[in-house]
Amino acid sequence: MKRSPIPLQLKLTIVLVMIVMVPLGVAAYFVGDISKNAANATAARTAAHLAVLEKSKATYHEMINTTKRLHGEIATRLVQRPELRALDPEAGTARLVELFGLDITGELAKLLAEPQQAGLSEIAILRADGSVFGEASRPLAGPEWRGKIVDENLGEAGTVLRLTFEVSATINKDLEALEDATDTTQMFFDINESELPGGNSTAFLVLMAIAALAAVGFGVLASTFVTRKIAALVTTARSVSLGRHDARVPQLGNDEMGELGGAFNTMLDALDETRHQVEYLQRMGVWQDVARRLAHEIKNPLTPIQLAVQQCVSTYKGDDARFKKLLVDTGEIVEEEIESLRRLVDTFRTLGALPKVEAAPLALAEMIEELKLDPTMAARLTLRPSPRPVTVRADKLLLKRVLANLVENGIHAGQENGTAGDVIIGWTSDLRGDLVVITIDDHGKGVTEADREKIFEPYVTTKTTGTGLGLAIARKIAIEHGGELAVAPDRAPTGGARFVVSLPLRGPESLA
Q: What is the pTM of this model?
């Protein structure tokens, strides 16, 4: 008994469960040691970071205090300098300075420019009432600096020496950020000093289990999504194998499976077209066989019939004028119909004795130009060539016969529609460069949708004259070249029918 294969969806689900559950089991086994080691390692690193942060914070505070002491010492040293005391507005010497017009700002600027005052950005002397007696300044080193004011009494009468020092504009924010980082690190250190609680291990395992279930659920959905697309391909293939040639794969999305479905449908379309062409060639083969037999059976008795009627007419010697006239008229009718039968036999012989295709490289433009050598076509034919030369592998005589038949039909269709019967031939190669499309546009009434397919069947014609074999022969020749002859679903720009001949640029080497 044949065992049923394991479904692909079940296989994918089992593999996914194994992939997820194996790491989960290993994690459950080692989670205790992992959590303890992780806690110890984290605590050690946190303690080291905390020590560095505490040391950095202490260094910041020491730097700030040192800077404050330095500023105070500079202020104390400056107020002791005689030249500054001489500028005290409440002192007599300062009044002499004002009387003689000495440059107080210049004196302060000289003092500010001394190297030992490198961190000083502004120096000013304020009277007891707060008004400025004299000042000098220089710009700060940059936007990251700000001024720090230090006031020192210059004399006993309330005069103040105001010094502005350059200090970092972000030092307070940096210190606050450092303190916040220290507090946060201390909090983590306090947490990591103790072992990881047992509830955390359980929570970790529960979280892993939830993740595993989510992964399995996603895997089931993903596998279902994939297997459903594969099932659509299998169903379509089985339908085609059962004879439903119109079965096609539904749209499977824009991923690789969608591309596969599109390629599968393209293959089915090509197979369906090939099947129709093979069926058409089989029908044409039957018609060819029938045509050969009819041509043989009809041609043989035609000459004896014609000779017999001519003999009856020539041997009558009677005096009955009415009968003689009737006999002559009968002879003319028989000869006319025999001539029609001979033309029909010639057509049968043409269908029954089509030569095999012998393809060779052919310059398409030159071959189509030769159609204008026929006087009946030259005045009615307009060419619209491809912008670049096109070379096909084709049998020149047969392909020329196809185009000549289509042009002749187009001229007749236009004239039956009351026009001059002009025909336009255009050709171009497709973007991939493996197919040439030749269009023949006329000014006729067009081809109805109902006649679009059966118009290529033998002995079916929409013209008032003709046998209906021309289009059948033309399509057979096109198919044997590896191409196709069809009627475009829309009317030509001229208002009439558009016949389309498709030929591969790399045609068969020989179909003989």
A: 0.51
Write the CB contacts of 409 (distance below 8 Å, at least 6 apart in sequence): 442, 463, 470, 471
Whole-angstrom Cα distance, residue 470 to residue 413? 14
Paired residues of 123 in beta bridges: 136, 163
CB 288 within 8 A of CB 349: no
Instruction: List for the chain the helix, strand, coil content (%; round to 5).
Output: 60, 15, 25
**Helices and strands (H and E) in the chain: how many:** 13, 11
Tell me phi and psi for residue 286, to 5 degrees.
-65, -45
Q: Which residues pair with 152 in a beta bridge?
A: 161
Non-local (6+) Cβ contacts of 451 within 8 A are: 462
Quote the CA–CA distance of 410 and 496 in Å, as a whole number: 9
Is residue 143 within 8 Å of residue 97, measured between CB atoms? no
Contact status, residue 55 vs residue 251, Cβ threshold 8 Å: no
> Taking Cα atoms as reference points, which of 6, 8, 2 lies closest to residue 231?
8
- Cα distance between residue 232 and residue 223, in whole Å: 14
Query: Residue 400 phi/psi, 5° resolution?
Result: -65, -35
Dihedral through CA 352, CA 358, CA 364, CA 369, nearest 10? Answer: -50
Residue the block writes with tokens 């085609």: 240
The pLDDT tens digits along the chain (512 residues) read 456 666 666 676 777 777 776 776 676 666 656 556 666 666 667 677 677 777 777 777 777 788 778 777 787 887 777 777 777 776 655 454 554 455 777 777 777 777 777 678 788 888 877 788 778 888 877 777 777 888 878 777 778 878 887 777 777 777 777 777 777 776 766 665 454 455 566 776 677 778 777 777 777 777 677 777 777 777 777 777 777 777 777 776 777 767 777 777 778 777 777 877 877 777 777 766 666 666 666 667 777 777 777 778 778 777 778 887 887 888 888 888 777 777 666 666 665 556 788 888 999 999 999 999 888 898 899 999 988 888 898 999 889 989 999 999 999 999 999 999 999 999 998 766 678 999 999 999 988 888 887 888 876 666 655 566 788 888 888 988 989 999 998 999 999 999 999 998 865 443 33
Cβ atoms of 186 and 57 closer than 8 Å: no
Q: Any long-range contacts for 301-310 (C-beta under 8 Å, 24+ apart)? A: 302/338, 302/341, 302/342, 302/345, 305/334, 305/338, 306/334, 306/335, 306/338, 309/334, 309/335, 310/335
> What angle is formed at CA 317 by the lines to CA 313 and CA 318, rounded to 5 degrees?
105
The token pair that represents 355 in the structure block? 């030569």
Give me the sheet containing 423-429, strands edge to edge: 381-384, 423-429, 435-441, 498-504, 484-487
Helix locations, 353-439, DSSP H: 364-369, 375-378, 396-416
